[in-house]
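User: Design a sequence. Structure:
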């Protein structure tokens, strides 16, 4: 007998539900892929108009950082798995839900060590992970005492934030107070971390950890902006410019960092500086990074970490082996477009945008994006979120990929008013 409710009923009983925390731009690719893989997808966000909402089967209005609210939504929908991507605030929430409901994932303790920089450094110390010398900081006296003991330059950061917010390099005593204030302002646990500055080439690492085994996906140079835009990536280039001996030392330090935070299943994102004295692990995240690091890993390894993460969350028996593979690219550049690409913009507005199609037509260019609209003001580069565009290009080697990315950026025009 015809029953117009039947198709809905069928979805309810036939498909297992995957909960993806956050429905913003960063989460859209995962929501879409999980739907394509046949799962029923529940997403949550504090914004009912977040772009991922329309792609999911169901939605609950809950903020990504709200542990109990998300747990309630998870229970209501009888989820079989939970994950997030891009969002650091959702990491402890994912762990909480997985732990309480007994779903695949990592522990709350691991989530804490991966999101609180002071706890992470304590774990690093216990396992002998090479890292900058650091200590928790609350007062100017503590920071001054650290400077006295270790000298300049120093780095001050919030204990638990991401996206390079409130992060400053300090070269002399007079900069300490403002840097501490900025770090504390962005910290949600009310603490900062002060550490020695590590000179060297910065390398971002991505890996899939499956049943304790570490599968490296990519190593890439993280080209960062000069102070005051400290630490913000303006380009990712892979392969990195380090030799194989250093690359292996970086992989070894990454393995140790993964062990130190107790991660046995999940995506790991160690951030390492290849210093003259060897690798120094700046931090490690346990999530799919934002800012197109997914594509760096995907094009270089052939494996999409979103697919791995979905398979892991849903308890796939072989999340690594069952993933689809594309041919790996020899080299890749992700070039971000920021205020540094338009000097003297002085808060000016974008009058018009064109050239995107021309840039996309270049062979070897895989993505061209401008997040600005006509009428928007060029944002100040104070965190990674203020990058307003990106180009991804692959090539036969680093130089070719970087050259092509620059050529694509050069084709995009966005004249400014005034
Ligand atoms: N001790 C350090 N030495 C050198 N550079 C650092 C140091 N700490 C941070 N940075 C720079 O700042 C960036 C952001 O620091 P990180 O600890 O990764 O914070 P976030 O969680 O905001 O990404 C790093 O990617 C790196 O470029
Ligand atoms: Mg970082």
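Assistant: Done.
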């Amino acid at each position: 007998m015809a029953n117009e409710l039947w198709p809905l009923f069928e979805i309810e009983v036939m498909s297992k539900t995957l909960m993806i925390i956050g429905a913003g731009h960063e989460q859209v690719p995962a929501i879409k892929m999980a739907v394509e893989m046949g799962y029923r997808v529940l997403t949550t966000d504090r914004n009912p108009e977040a772009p991922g909402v329309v792609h999911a089967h169901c939605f609950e209005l809950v903020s990504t950082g709200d542990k109990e609210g998300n747990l309630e939504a998870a229970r209501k929908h009888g989820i079989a798995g939970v994950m997030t991507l891009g969002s650091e605030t959702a990491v402890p929430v994912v762990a909480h839900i997985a732990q309480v409901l007994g779903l695949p994932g990592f522990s709350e303790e691991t989530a804490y060590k991966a999101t609180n920089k002071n706890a992470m450094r304590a774990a690093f110390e216990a396992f002998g992970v090479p890292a900058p010398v650091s200590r928790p900081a609350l007062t100017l006296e503590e920071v001054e005492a650290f400077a006295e003991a270790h000298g300049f330059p120093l780095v001050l950061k919030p204990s638990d934030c991401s996206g390079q917010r409130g992060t400053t390099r300090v070269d002399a005593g007079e900069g300490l107070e403002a840097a501490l204030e900025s770090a504390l302002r962005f910290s949600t646990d009310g603490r900062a971390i002060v550490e020695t500055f590590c000179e060297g080439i910065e390398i971002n690492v991505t890996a899939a950890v499956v049943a304790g085994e570490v599968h490296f996906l990519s190593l890439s140079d993280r080209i960062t902006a000069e102070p005051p835009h400290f630490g913000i990536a303006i380009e990712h280039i892979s392969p990195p410019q380090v030799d194989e001996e250093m690359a292996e030392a970086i992989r070894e330090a990454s393995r140790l960092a993964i062990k130190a935070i107790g991660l046995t299943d999940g995506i790991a994102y160690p951030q390492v500086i290849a210093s003259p004295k060897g690798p120094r692990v700046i931090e490690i995240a346990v999530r799919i990074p934002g800012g197109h690091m997914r594509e760096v890993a995907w094009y270089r390894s052939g494996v999409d970490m979103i697919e791995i993460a979905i398979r892991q969350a849903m308890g796939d028996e072989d999340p690594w082996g069952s993933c689809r593979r594309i041919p790996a690219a020899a080299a890749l550049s992700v070039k971000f477009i920021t205020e540094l690409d338009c000097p003297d913009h002085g808060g000016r507005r974008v009058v018009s945008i064109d050239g995107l199609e021309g840039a996309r037509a270049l062979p070897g260019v895989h993505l061209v994006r401008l997040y600005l609209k006509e009428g928007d003001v060029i944002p100040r580069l104070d965190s990674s979120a203020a990058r307003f565009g990106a180009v991804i290009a692959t090539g036969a080697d680093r130089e070719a990929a970087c050259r092509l990315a620059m050529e694509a950026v050069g084709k995009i025009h966005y004249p400014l008013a005034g």
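Residues 23 and 52 are 4 Å apart (CA to CA). The first strand starts at residue 17 and ends at 21.
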